[in-house]
Design brief:
Rossmann fold, 5-stranded parallel sheet, binds (2R)-2,3-dihydroxypropanoic acid, 13 helices, about 325 residues, 7-stranded parallel sheet, 2 domains, alpha/beta, about 15% strand
Length: about 325
């Protein structure tokens, strides 16, 4: 039987690349260089399925390329703001993603950044490496206590709920959240969480604000200068969602002028470029989009893409169908 032709845009963990090779006539990206728009268009013409990820801009030009062969985009990742979903839907191209399997690891990264920002973890590491440490003293590098402080979540999907669970049960943090589509009442009760009508209500009350909303037009610069100024001067902002949810220029200003105490960022506007103003600041902790970056999770994400493909090629509905 002829195997479906599948193009993978970036390098995947070996174990899942091996599974792909068993099942499909697969083209892997051994050099792991991002594909250009023209290369993505070519892949759409040559393959039955394209398996992109967050670094690939799958816009209407890529989807509507003449003589397109691909019928499915099996995204490696849960976020899909790099894919023009409306163009895909209009063109009859199915899109799937990989929810659930990365929930805990991404929530762990949000907690990691929260702790780093509160307790000056990255700054302390630099201090030791730069041989600036002269010894223990009662007033050296004082941070902010985490246990018992209020965590505010903007967006209350799976990852936010997982973070809330860790924060509430592990650190005794009261939870506030805003989400136009709140979770079920028993989930809210289990976390003893308080629902806020607006994001502003969260920003005004929280000691730590963590962003968990999708990227895209509806959340572009949601955290702008005006909203940042509503946060407490002692508060920290954590972003593991998407870079453009925050107006970075306004964030740099807020961090310099100490309108907020600190920030922990795993995602950036226009990444991998990073606003140069952030490099000079000690009160921001920076990670290179590591949210789901564990061996176990990246293998599980690859398997989830393959499960979606298998269903599609068997004429069944993929479990994570978006369009
Ligand atoms: C996700 O899964 O959305 C990660 O941010 C990588 O795309």
């Amino acid at each position: 039987m002829v195997k479906p032709v599948v193009v993978v845009t970036r390098k995947w963990p070996e174990q899942v690349e091996a599974r792909l090779q068993q099942l499909y006539d697969v083209s892997l990206n051994h050099h792991d260089q991002p594909m250009t728009g023209a290369e993505l268009q070519q892949a759409m013409c040559e393959a039955d399925a394209l398996l992109p990820t967050v670094t690939d801009l799958i816009n209407a030009d890529v989807i509507n390329v003449a003589n397109r062969r691909a019928k499915i985009l099996g995204n490696f990742g849960v976020g899909f703001n790099h894919i023009d979903i409306h163009a895909a839907q209009a063109a009859g191209v199915m899109v799937t993603n990989t929810p659930e399997v990365l929930t805990d690891c991404t929530a762990d990264t949000a907690m990691l950044l929260l702790l780093m920002s509160a307790r000056r973890g990255a700054e302390g590491d630099r201090h030791v490496r730069n041989k600036q440490w002269t010894g223990w003293r009662p007033t050296h590098m004082l941070g902010s206590k985490v246990t018992g402080k209020t965590l505010g979540l903007i967006g209350m999907g799976r990852i936010a709920q997982a973070m809330a669970r860790k924060a509430y049960h592990g650190f005794g943090m009261p939870i506030l959240f805003h989400d136009p589509f709140p979770p079920a009442a028993d989930t809210i009760a289990d976390l003893n969480a308080t629902q806020c009508t607006t994001p502003e209500d969260v920003l005004r009350q929280a000691d730590f604000v963590s962003l968990h909303c999708p990227g895209g037009k509806s959340t572009y610069h949601l955290l702008n200068a005006e909203r940042l100024s509503m946060m407490k001067p002692t508060a920290h902002l954590i972003n593991t969602a998407r870079g453009d949810v925050v107006d970075t220029e306004a964030l740099v200003d807020a961090l310099i002028s100490r309108k907020i105490a600190g920030a922990g960022l795993d995602v950036f506007e226009g990444e991998p470029d990073v606003h140069p103003g952030l490099f000079d600041l000690d009160n921001v902790s920076l990670l290179p989009h590591l949210g789901s970056a564990t061996e176990e999770t990246r293998v599980a994400m690859g398997n989830r893409v393959i499960d979606n493909l298998q269903a599609f090629f068997n004429g069944e509905q993929p479990p994570d169908q978006l369009t």
